[in-house]
Give the backbone structure.
Amino acid sequence: MSKFLLLTKREIQERLGQKGFWYMLVLGPLVLLLLLVAILKAADEGKQELKVLIADPGQIMAHRLMAQEEKNIHYYFIDDYLEMQEFDKAKAYQEFDVLLELNEKVLNNKKCFVFYRDQLGLDARMQLKFQVEKRMEELIASQHSTLTEEAFRQIKQGFVFDFRDLKDPKNESKEANAWAGFIFGAFILFFVGLYGMTIFRATVREKSNRIVEVLLASVRPEQLMLSKITGIGLVALLQLLGWAVVLSLGLLFLQQTVFLDVFDPSNWGEAGPQRLNPLSSLVFEQLNLPFLLLHFFLFFAASFLFYGSLFAVLGARSSADADGQQFLLPLIFMVAFGIFAGIYAIYYPNTTLTEVLTYLPFSAPVIAFITLAKGATVVGYTTTMLSLLILLAAALLLLKLAGRWYKQYILKF
Amino acid sequence: MIKVAQISKSYQRKLVLDNISLEVPRGQIFGLLGPNGAGKTTLIRMLNQMLSPDAGSIYFDGQLLQASHLQQIGYLPEERGLYKSMGVRAHLLFLAQLRGLTKQDAAHHVDHWLAHFEIQDWQNKRIATLSKGMAQKVQFIAALVHQPQLLILDEPLSGFDPLNVELIMNEIKALKEKGTTIILSTHNMKSVDEICDHAALLHQGKLLAQDAVLQLRQAYAKGRIFVRFKGNMLSFANALWTDFTLLEQKERSEGVFECTLQIRGASTMNDLMRSLQAHVEVEHLELLLPSMQEVFVDLITQKETQDV
């Protein structure tokens, strides 16, 4: 067996011999699945249930709100003033979560107070505001015109602005998919960062316990560095593969049990499954997971080589863990930069900066996955593959440079 | 076996080795001596091809030192470590294979050395559970498990208790008997006196002396003579006249004395013998050689005096 393989094998065996690896292998995806279930369930039915009491002494609203009320917010009226303290303390009002106080001049001063027991979510606030505001508009319209409420409602129907990309007129690439791709890309950087730290720590440990002096009497420093990156990279890949298997099985299980109704066509209606639960539809229906996974491993390998060599050099440069922390900071910033670049690319997909970021090795993995998850066109896919090639070339160049730096620093104690 | 020809090395403009040339004869134990910072470790790292010289060359068996020669070299660094999570046998197998042995050969050699040091019971222990002395033994085996022709030992005795020092010293001697060439870098001058055939002394990157240990000791002898005689002490003292100074005297038994003398001027051992013959019965006469410790101190002191 060649020395490179021998060193790589040792790295793999050491990591696989650690209990932490196996815990992470099982617990990591399970925690993710639980989070996913929580998010999907929240998207499905997590809206805040509220009982809103409207104190309307002038009976301005005439005990009515909009024709289509929100299912989760229930409105009740009293035709009198209600003091805040009384609402808070009186037994009769304990069942209500919110008090909406409408004074008799509300149509003129356009101000009302909302008292709540528990903090209201943004969604609930928006719904409440929307419902009351619309009702007020109706009332103001009826005061200042001859329009009936029904006629006003007809006029007030909102316009639907359906934005379509000329390159994607069927609107196949969606923002939700872009975010899903972003999560894939961020995952790459997360794992690269996690296992990059392992490379860093392993290098520092070898240096501080001086085994490196024994090893370098048999192998070249570049060989030692590359075997470490390869060994730890393969372990990271193995863990990712494990996560992919556990997550796939978990998703399949969820599909067959928890989210069964999402896949029952009788529940879909005309708009398809996404009407029932857009998030679960995204996860189970719209993302091409095998395609994404294949590219995930390609981008992961290139990114790991790129960042791994930097982590190894920093390890060689450091004489102790604590000493190395300061050098790690710029590298962590680079990883963070990649993530922010992805967010930028979602909001501004067609700017020159996004184009530059697509080819920049630090941000390429995240942006590539945003493109891929949206359902890349031929041009998009070619761009993505080009960015992969650039990333790979940069990684190989960096490996060569890092080998020199590693050699320079590793024997400086 | 090893020829170092006009080697120089600098770190950040500081000259660490300055035009060093030396030869390590095959099958001998070569002491590489010098105070801290003399450049010994740098030279050793060059022999192991961890560092390249800025100038000069190193030859192994007449060939320019190459990576392929590393399989013939064993190295026990001064600051040495092992992977704490590995088992003893697995670790030795790993290092032996790194040195170029096949898995089968490595297993064979490792088992031989574990048995030789009577530590087979440790073979499945994790390195982390070993005491310092036990780990040192494993490191010593790791350096020679691939049966190198050249063994470089940097402070091999540090960390050992006296019993194990004896064990390691005997092992070094036995390796020499089997034909292994050994470079021994140490501050333990007693071990140099005891086992080294040749020695080189480095100081501040320069080679101060290099020769056979006996030659070095003779070259730096201070003209002291040990005498054991039977007779009268007064007669003995009179016989010394002005050519020798009596430094120490001790009556070993009745009428038997042991004395240490210092030669003065150009007098010789023969002169002393002739002077004493008529006065006392000489039982033992010996020119006292300095220890390598004394040679070491003298050379460094001389060098520092010159520099001042």
In short: Residues 5 and 26 of chain B are 17 Å apart (CA to CA). Chain B has a mean pLDDT of 89. Chain B has ten helices and 14 strands. Chain B has two domains: 2-218, 222-288.
